[in-house]
Amino acid sequence: MLNGAFPILLTAFDDKDALDLGAIGALLDFYRELGLPGVLALGQASEMLLLDDEERFRVAEFVGGHPRGNLAAAVVGNFGATLAEQARSLQRIYDMGADVVVVALSLLPSAEGLGEQLLELAGMVKPDTRLGVYEIPEPEHRLLSPAEAGEIAGSGRYYFMKETSRDPEIFRGKVKAAAGSGLKIYQANLKALPPSMEMGSAGFCGWMPMVAPELCAQVCDMSLPAALRRLAHDKLTAFNDVMVAHGFPASAKHILAGRGIPIQPYSREGAARKFFEIGSAALDDYIARNAPFAAVSFAEEA
């Protein structure tokens, strides 16, 4: 897994509420052509919790089989009521072509002993299966402790983690615990991103890499001057606020359509209704006036 901006892959729907796999393929092509390190499929923003199992496996199979070049696919895959069922689901999705198959903590059978369950799952799938972890906030927000992060890192089986504590010091503890292992830890929270990058984050896996990966890449590029990274973060924060105010994830799909992706704004998420209630005029005007996709330069401070 490479460092940098790591978008969550939106799930596209048509006007009959059916999966639009063609639009998902266009998103994968878009991110591949931008040279991004990878995507997280079937995350919370992918509306994974609002899909049935058949739809989840259809998305996973499509992503796994789609030409991606150097774009890695991390795919959430622990579906089922028991660890044994979840292990079979993880293996099935990995065998479909995922580069990493990800365990969503809130889907584990128990809220107790998260690290133990992760290690047990690792022993129930094939030894060459590359695993990941996602501290998905719903339906219950479960977090690994730094000690647990160190345990799974030390197993040599886990390669990806989306960290959602929103606490830079907790994040620091997990990064420190995983140091020297193959586990890369990505920050999910935009506000916590700058200090997390200073602490050794592998990058940003959140909402804004979906629509503005160029700016996200700047914030994640530690070779750039701190002032320039801060300027890019400020621009991202303002854009994020506008996107959320217009009914995410429908607003994100509309933004991507404006970038040339053949995706429609249809969504199953309740918050997305706001997009259809207020329309896109103010969002479109903001984009036209602020060019929020463009990488920043010091000239913008003038």
Q: What are the key terms here?
A:
alpha/beta, TIM Barrel, 9-stranded parallel β-sheet, globular, 302 residues
3D architecture notes:
With 302 residues, the chain is an alpha/beta fold. Helices cover 44% and strands 11% of the residues. It has 13 helices and nine strands. The protein has helices spanning 21-33, 53-65, 83-95, 114-124, 146-154, 168-178, 193-198, 208-211, 213-220, 226-245, 250-258, 273-278, 281-290; strands at 4-5, 8-9, 38-41, 72-76, 100-104, 131-134, 158-163, 184-187, 203-204. A nine-stranded parallel beta sheet has the order 1-9-8-7-6-5-4-3-2. α4 (114-124) links the parallel β5 and β6 (131-134). The longest helix is centred in the last third of the chain and has 20 residues, at 226-245. The relative contact order is 0.13.
Question: What is the total domain count?
Answer: 1
Low-confidence stretches: none
User: Structural class, from helix and strand content?
Assistant: alpha/beta
- CATH class bucket: Alpha Beta
CATH superfamily: Aldolase class I
Order of adjacent strands in the largest pleated sheet: 1-9-8-7-6-5-4-3-2
- How far apart are the termini? 38 Å
The percentage helix is: 40-55%
What is the name of the CATH architecture? Alpha-Beta Barrel
**Number of separate helices:** 13
Rg is 18 Å
Shape: globular
User: What is the strand tally?
Assistant: 9
Q: Report the mean per-residue pLDDT as an integer.
A: 96
Strand portion: 5-15%
CATH topology heading: TIM Barrel
Q: What is the N-to-C succession of helices and strands? A: EEHEHEHEHEHEHEHEHHHHHH
Largest sheet: 9 strands, parallel
| Oligomeric composition of the shown chains | single chain
